[in-house]
Amino acid sequence: MAAxxxxxxAGPVTDEPFEIDPAERASRVARPxxxxxxxxxxxxEWIERAFxxxxxxxxxxxxxxxxxxxxxxxxxxxxxxxxxxxxxAVAALDAVxxxxxxxxxxxxxxxxxGPVRALDAGVRAEITGGVRHCHExxxxxxxxxxxxxxxxxxxxxxxxxxx
Length: 163
Description:
two-stranded antiparallel sheet, 4 strands, mainly alpha, 61% helix
């Protein structure tokens, strides 16, 4: 596997981390363009956070359904067959009409998360050479008292899309 260079082009494989300096890249981009890229990056991060919350709801819902099935077994063992039947029926309910949470997760991933990530990558590719967080790196570089290091260290197998 090849590692990416600062331009996102494949280079030789090494065990050394790949380093890129978003502040250096930011110095070559006009402020309005950098701010526009930042807005897309932040919007993408919010969509990713929402997806994380959806995954959390998916896992919690599945866990709760399993707990309800366990409760149904306990109710049946205690002789409460009608209540056990009700608990099993509730455990089988859809999260929303006709849909379980896995369907919502997969469709969110395909219909929104994937396209917003592609937009983010395309905007960054065209304006910052694919480098992430140039706006923040510029802010850090210009902040009095902040440590001067703005380099990001990535795994050696980093590709252009990961920068």
